[in-house]
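Quick question about two entries, pasted in order.
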Amino acid sequence: MTATRSGPLKGVLRAPGDKSISHRALILGALASGVTEVEGLLEGEDVKRTAAAMAAFGAEVERLGEGRWRVVGKGGFSEPADVVDCGNAGTGVRLIMGAAAGFAMSATFTGDASLRGRPMMRVLKPLGEMGATWMCRAGGRLPLTLQGGLLKHVAYRLPEPSAQVKSAVLLAGLHANGGAEVIEPEATRDHTERMLRAFGAEVDVHEHGPERHIILPGGQKLNGIKVVVPGDPSSAAFPLVAALITPGSEVTVEGMLLNPLRIGLLETLGDMGADLSVTNVREEGGETVADVTARHSQLVGVDVPPERAPSMIDEYPILAVAAAFADGPTAMRGIGEMRVKESDRIALMAAGLTACGVAVEEGPDSLTVVGAVRANHGVKGGARVTTHGDHRIAMSHLILGLASDEPVAVDEPGMIATSFPGFFDLMRSLGAEISA
């Protein structure tokens, strides 16, 4: 796919359902007793893999219509008859392994080439401390066979911020003797804690200085509920940044999630001088949502506080694109987690931006983008970017192409459907020039 310099982007849209909440709604619905009805579920490939996995573990999973799903849980998991293929869903497989560890059964997990290359030891380590065992490839990589059951209590301190690891431990703790406790040096997205409460579980959160202690007592049962999934801020970031960097643009995203632990990108764009307005703030399904409008802006480079990384780790690729159109350097530090996502996102963003004429400096856990917008100097573009099958790398460079001097092409655009089905049609509806 190729993106070409476009005229003003205009329109109102709703971002696809939040991926993190969609995964959790399906998993908790399968663990619960009774019916869970979900509205606004993200119907990307990653979430569909989680839906299929929940059926494999014994839940009844049915699609009722666009974004409307029903899960009938049996109060726990049963042993799957076949290998559970999670495709490219890193969040899905890590959370499902945590949930499955609580039951006396064996389950084998695999995924696509990208997921089989991603490390699982960060999840396996605490599950092992609770009593689960496994067999896998070197480095804790898929395919992996997990044996669960007879788990014991753990008080696990996260060695690095990770909502996936926290969530896996809490889901395992539902069926561990004595439950589980997770200690976070830095707060990460708290959708699992919020949703566990919505399903009827007791979850206590205590602040001890900068640390958060999340305590889940054992022996709890979940009951099916109705879940309304808000718009994903990680997906909304793409049309919003497109509007900020494309002259004359004004785009509104309705129903966007504004969880305080997910708004790091909005805060950073605000620091850069972005013309953003937030209206119609409301509560839906236990989460704060609002309508967010972005207008073309003259951005300036900033130093992004490292402690903000957990709240926007998936948004750094598109932030790097915004930074390319800013005046001055934007330094992003403490982002080493980006190297173990679907790809090494630091390396791929550095390579792609460099190919498009943007000056960058890459470090082990940092990326500095030197904004190209000066008096008579814009972003050149003109590259064909290798994405290594990473949906966020692909979308970020296509957004770059909408405002660069020369077209920008990406390979493997089909992977965009993992998180943002309908991305191309939505962007074209705003006036974006993106074609095959």
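Here is the second entry:
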Amino acid sequence: MKRFLLLVLPLLLWACSDDEGITVERTKNDYQPNTIGSTWTYSSLFDFTQTVTNGAKIIDGKKYFEYKIQTDGLGSFKTYARKEGSSYINRELFPGQFDDGEYIFLKDEPEGTYWTEVSYDEEGTETTDLLFIVETNETLTVGGETFTDVIIVEVSSMTEGATEPYILYYHYAKGVGLIRISDDNGFVDTDLVNYLIKN
């Protein structure tokens, strides 16, 4: 899933002003809590922390809440997310440069549910992702803590010109959010190391 890889490997520093006076619904007992000040720290190739700010934005008539992503040695950037029905949606917006559109990264749906997302990078290269809910109601231990009610999403990405897909697994715990990203060969290994979900 391209958007969460950008959380692991952000390559640029940017800032964006928020729309004034916009409010969004804040929920904490969700697969992606969005209460102001909620923070997650991950251990990865580049360690990073994401925090829900008090910012919000209207893009194409839809309300998004804002994350700030801070990475070790690579600066910070912002990204936007929202929930609609059972779908969790992300959008990266680089003002004056690039808007990658909406991307459904998770659905609170039964095992076997699948959907396709097509995205383009700033050079126009197309990536097609097939997302598939492998497991629901799983129990997983990450960083010494045991999480229940975990949804596992397999993301099979085929970038234009590639000969085979790249497969990642995203693990989301209810009331916590993303707790692990992994692949079949151990090259990608991102784990939640600490978090704070605000009321």
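Reply: The two ends are 28 Å apart (CA to CA). Residues 1-17 have pLDDT under 50 and may be disordered. Hope that helps.
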